[in-house]
Design a protein that fits this description.
The relative contact order is 0.17. The chain has 11 helices and 10 strands. The chain is α/β, with parallel strands linked by helices. A hairpin with a 3-residue loop joins strand 6 and strand 7 (143-147). It has an 8-stranded mixed beta sheet with strand order 2-1-3-8-5-9-7-6. It is globular and about 55 Å long. Helix 4 packs across helix 6.
Length: 261
């Protein structure tokens, strides 16, 4: 089996961020293939979101609707998984176009460092979720691979293999059922999220967000009474006991216990 790692960039046509990443990958002598991202706004305007989006499963999982741009972003990863499976690609690194990779990623690809089945390895993660202090293994002399004990949120720069991509397609049935990062239950579906420490990439969106503007415009950005009338510092302090006491879950605002946690 070919152990070479294929690199993909997910990007919408006309993205102003893409040239920055392309230039960086060329500097690192990393070959890549561009996956044209799914334009959720176009599906929305054509009233065809149902073709790529399961609204009922999404509401059950995350207890809110998603904007067309969010749906398109998640669908773009599903599209990439389909490409990986169809073309029998064993190992793949997937970039969104708003990241800036370190020189270590070039070394990583050259050394053909693989990820195992039932595992997703992010090269950086948002400050949410928990991971094990002791690395599973250390590679390139200094990069620790740390397994998560919860979801580790980031799908902007990560590695996945064909087996896991195929498994996610089976879980989702090829449609968006929640956030792009990640539409599965790590315990129920036996998939481990992991992260490299130190990080090997950083976010580099240059202040250009294609998600927030359409989310506010189409879904609205309504503030509740407390958020609207209390100073932010007091409002955030109220949120801590509110969520830790499972009040939203007990009142069935959130129906999925796993995603609530």
């Amino acid at each position: 089996m070919n152990n070479n790692i294929k690199v993909f960039i997910i990007s919408l046509k006309g993205s102003k961020r893409l040239p920055i990443l392309k230039k960086r990958l060329k500097q690192l002598k990393i070959k890549f293939t561009i996956i044209n991202g799914v334009n959720g706004i176009k599906y929305y305007k054509q009233k065809k979101l149902h073709l790529i989006f399961d609204k009922n499963k999404t509401l059950k999982n995350i207890n809110r609707n998603m904007s067309p741009s969010e749906i398109g972003a998640a669908a773009s990863h599903i599209k990439t998984y389909k490409h990986i499976v169809k073309n029998n690609i064993n190992q793949a690194i997937i970039f969104e176009d708003d990241v800036y990779p370190s020189i270590k990623i070039g070394e990583w690809i050259k050394k053909k460092i693989n990820v195992n089945n039932d595992k997703i390895l992010s090269f950086y993660a948002y400050p949410s979720g928990f991971f094990k202090k002791k690395p599973e293994r250390v590679v390139l002399n200094s990069i620790g691979i740390h397994n998560g004990v919860t979801h580790l949120y980031n799908n902007s720069c990560y590695q996945i293999n064909k087996f896991t991509a195929k498994k996610i397609l089976k879980i989702t049935r090829g449609k968006v059922i929640g956030y792009a990062d990640w539409p599965f239950n790590t315990i129920q579906h036996n998939i481990t999220c992991s992260v490299t420490l130190p990080y090997m990439a950083i976010p580099n969106d240059r202040g250009m967000s294609y998600l927030s503007s359409s989310r506010d415009k189409i879904l609205g950005n309504k503030k509740n009474f407390f958020k609207k009338n209390l100073p932010e510092i007091f409002y955030k302090k109220l949120l801590i006991p509110f969520y830790l006491l499972f009040i939203p879950f007990l009142f069935r605002k959130y129906k999925n216990f796993y995603f609530y946690k």
